[in-house]
Design brief:
Strand order of the largest sheet: 7-6-5-4-8
Strand content: 15-25%
Number of strands: 8
Largest sheet: 5 strands, antiparallel
Number of domains: 2
Number of helices: 8
Shape: elongated
Distance between the termini: 56 Å
């Protein structure tokens, strides 16, 4: 999600005044869910901040941190120019409550096959309370119908895999850039097993490749440079 513009002092103070309203909204929802699943999520402290790249989170109790929910006023506050809709706001609360559930209730064995914060156990909890079973926020998703059975059978894409995707993209970009580098010269001769000796007469740089115009006697061929680089059918005279 794109970052929200810097919050000035006046707007910051206005957002802070909204905290009691938001707390009541969250605790009311969590109390209803607690009653349905015999949990105590409404008793977990709720904190607020001004993060521009985080909507909400649930932190488990540990030696270093106390258990709490956390939400950013930059997306929830009514004073923001484009706050979340009520439906998306409620879905965000449920999203984090589902994280609380996955660590505080018994999860059936068939829904524990994929570990992780957004694994199958979390999706199972989402299915119980009607939260969108997707790890990243999309506007309007709270209004959609979700195929929970299908979602719980699909593997969630974790951040590590996202990094791998980025690596693949970087490698693809590198290869594309490499393909744009001219590796031959006008006037250079190559040898082809069928057409014989050819001379490069022109070089044309394209967006993702280089096109060579090669004269084989009276015949002219236009060949993408990458084919000359990859195949052994085309040889420089210097390579023979």
């Amino acid at each position: 999600m794109s970052k929200t513009p810097t919050i000035d002092y006046e707007k910051r103070q206005a957002l802070l005044k909204e905290i009691p309203i938001l707390q009541k909204e969250i605790q009311h929802l969590f109390s209803q869910l607690d009653q349905s699943y015999h949990l105590h999520g409404a008793e977990v402290p709720v904190t607020f901040g001004f993060e521009t790249d985080l909507l909400g989170s649930y932190t488990r109790p540990s030696d270093h941190e106390e258990e709490h929910f956390h939400f950013s006023l930059c997306f929830l506050g009514y004073s923001i120019e484009k706050p979340l809709s009520k439906e998306d706001r409620m879905d965000l609360y449920k999203h984090e409550y589902a994280h609380y559930m996955q660590y505080n209730m018994q999860i059936p064995a068939e829904y524990t096959w994929q570990p992780g914060h957004h694994g199958s156990a979390w999706k199972y909890c989402c299915s119980l309370i009607g939260a969108a079973p997707t790890p990243f926020y999309k506007a309007g998703e709270a209004l959609l119908e979700h195929d929970y059975d299908k979602q719980m059978k699909q593997k969630t894409i974790f951040h590590q895999e996202s990094k791998l995707r980025d690596h693949i993209k970087r490698e693809r970009d590198y290869r594309a850039a490499e393909g744009r580098n001219v590796q031959y010269q006008v006037g250079e001769e190559i040898q082809h097993p069928k057409f014989g000796t050819g001379t490069i007469e022109a070089i044309e740089k394209l967006d993702r490749s280089v096109r060579l115009t090669i004269r084989f006697g009276d015949e002219i061929k236009k060949i993408d440079q990458k084919w000359l680089v990859k195949t052994t059918k085309y040889k420089r005279f210097s390579d023979r």
